[in-house]
Amino acid sequence: MAINKENNNFVPKWSYDAAPESTNHLHLKKQYELFIDGEFIKPTKGNYFETTNPATEEKIASIAEATEEDVDKAVRSAKKAFKSWTALAAKERGKYIFRIARLIQERAREFAVIESIDGGKPIRESRDIDIPLAANHFFYYAGWADKLNYAFPNRNPKALGVCGQIIPWNFPLLMAAWKIAPALATGNTVVLKPAETTPLTALKLAEIIQESGLPKGVVNIITGAGETGAALVNHPDVDKIAFTGSTKVGKNIQKSIAGTTKKLSLELGGKGANIIFEDAPIDQAVEGIINAIFFNQGHVCCAGSRLFVQESIAEIVIDKLKERMKTLLVGNPLDKNTDIGAINSKKQLQTIKNYIQIGLNEGGDIYQSDCKLPEKGNWCAPTLFLNVSQSHRIVQEEIFGPVLAIQTFRTIDEAIEKANNTPYGLSAGVWTQNGAKIFHVTQKLNAGVVWANTFNKFDATSPFGGYKESGFGREGGLHGLKSYVTFD
Amino acid sequence: MSRLDILKTYKLYIGGKFPRTESGRYYPIYDKKENLLANVCSASRKDFRNAVVEARKAQSSWANSSALNKGQILYRIAEMLEGRKEQFITELIAQGVSQKAGQTEVEAAIDRLVYYAGWSDKYQQLFSAVNPVSSAHFNFSMLEPVGIVSILAPEEQSLLGMVSVIAPAIVGGNTVIILASESKPLNAISFAEVLHSSDVPGGVVNILTGSKKELVSQMASHMDVNAIIYCGKDENEIKTIDEFASESIKRTIFYKKNNWDNEESESPYFIEKTQEIKTTWHPTKA
């Protein structure tokens, strides 16, 4: 197929004016405490850490650091609250959750801006994806509260007790919603720990929960880093652990609760395969590749970080992809035109840079768009690697940044085999106009979520979660309830 | 003139073949009167690894065989077991089970196979969902087998317990490696003969005999095993399994029950335990 250069010319001759979202409507405090038993209380040891804006490196607020004593307080509060919460009429329980969903919707704009300031993601994404999906998730599970016997016929589902929930920094509010909503709907109580670099929207959610009148102690939100999380995991009165984060930490958690009766669900890393067949809608697929790997700066566990292009169309796809990458605007997360925001933290930026260096050292051919990066803050230009193979570390390991590894294939079987040749199994994508081929390939991919002619789509009704070392248990949909109930 | 009995050599069952353990080791099984019943293979870790290779080879074609076909094969196992009922009862009695309990156990095992044969083309409809997403996609969630399951069979009810955990795993398209009851292993190997004559493809069910203590860590840690089922109550063994399983995020399933001869011991939820949920987003806009 000849390359039509004219079709590839995405780059406009003019530039965008800045279109920043304002921040004067935010209600932010200088210091945030721990949300335990319905109150904001100071940490026992009096330690605080800073949360900063990764785009400007400016401090936003001081955040309480929960130590073992505080974790214990939070778990006790959740344990105390469990009895009456789980005994409450299910309809009433549901109504509280509906109320939380509505309160998030009312304050959606504020939440979106805070999410972008604290985590670095483009306002377009926090406004159109993170916050609405978080509200939808509460709304969805609210409705399940009084219908659980229809979800599990003849099984008499019951709540587990206290759920310790640990969430990552890539979708802070959305992950909080994914954890809290099904736990509450099934009658559990919660101690949630947001990530240390992105605690703000979870703490704002704590304010909403307080406003909603949810009984005290049903949801407790405590902040801190890995040690706080470990204290929560190992607390003897925690009945269930739900963790979203790296496979390495997931393995540690599974190991550390070995021999206990704690129920576990894990949503871990991934190295998603995105497979483009020669009969794919090419322009649509190029957009799909961009969305698969550059959405949220590539800080996505289900990112399509391994691209497989059928050999016959590889040249044109890669050419178009490079052209499209040139148009991606990297910069101020609050600018409505921004496509790629700031890398979440200095530490993560260093991880990504290390992987780029590894890719170069192992002989990969790099391509980066020559976009202008702001001087201050954590930034990474969208990057792709060609001339890599299955054995390269950047093909095998999760980078969690805007770095794409591209390989080609000739046959369907080769694509499937390469796609499945990974310890992970979270997501995959298939691009073709042939409906039968979609079913043929999606059935054979070892992944919990498979997208056809799209990527990185989420919905409260759609179960999400991995195969193999990407974890177990599902979040979203009817199947998401199961992680939070026990049966006779 | 009295006739000298022909004694059976009890071997392992791996990949549809009956090899002796590669280790050359054995352990003796005696009846109540301390008479030798059999020298049973004491399988090694290497035997287990060989079995995993066979289980992996067999897995995808077994999973891709039709639901109806899997159901008919399970039913066929029941037919074959029914035909050899007396042999199984005799073996149980020799290992110290009463005549009545032996008969009940074998009959319950046959019925359990028929029960799961019936589920083969039905459980999917219970656990699948079409999800009403907001975008223009046909979004559905369905079950897929987790892959390879290692199973530590219960010590008591050595036939019924084993059948009760094998049947739901294989009817769901998994392939399995079982470590039989250590104290009562004879039925397990005879059951392999039943499987062998029931159109069960080689490698779908692999049966080992040997020391639980020796093999448990390997069964829990092998990187190509996707899930492990443990039947028993030993807290140390459970902890060991959990710890080794974490190295590859293996799914762990523990059955702490003693009695497998009741209605609570059979349900589609036993099938669901060794299934994954795959969610597919299919475009609906042309």
Question: Overview of this structure, please?
Answer:
The complex is a heterodimer of chains A (488) and B (286). Chain A has 488 residues and is α/β, with parallel strands linked by helices. Chain A has two domains: 31-268 and 467-486, Aldehyde Dehydrogenase, Chain A, domain 1 (3-Layer(aba) Sandwich), CATH 3.40.605; 270-452, Aldehyde Dehydrogenase, Chain A, domain 2 (3-Layer(aba) Sandwich). Chain A contains 15 helices and 20 strands. In chain A, the strands form five sheets. Chain A has a seven-stranded mixed beta sheet, sandwiched between helices. Chain A has a six-stranded mixed beta sheet with strand order 9-8-7-10-11-19, with helices on both faces. In chain A, α3 (108-119) crosses α4 (123-144). In chain A, 59% of the residues are buried. Chain B is α/β, with parallel strands linked by helices. Chain B is 43% helix and 20% strand. Chain B is built from ten helices and ten strands. In chain B, α6 links the parallel β5 and β6 (175-179). In chain B, α8 (212-221) packs parallel to α9. The radius of gyration of chain B is 20 Å and the shape is globular. The model of chain B has no long low-confidence stretch (mean pLDDT 97). The interface between A and B is large, with 45 and 34 residues.
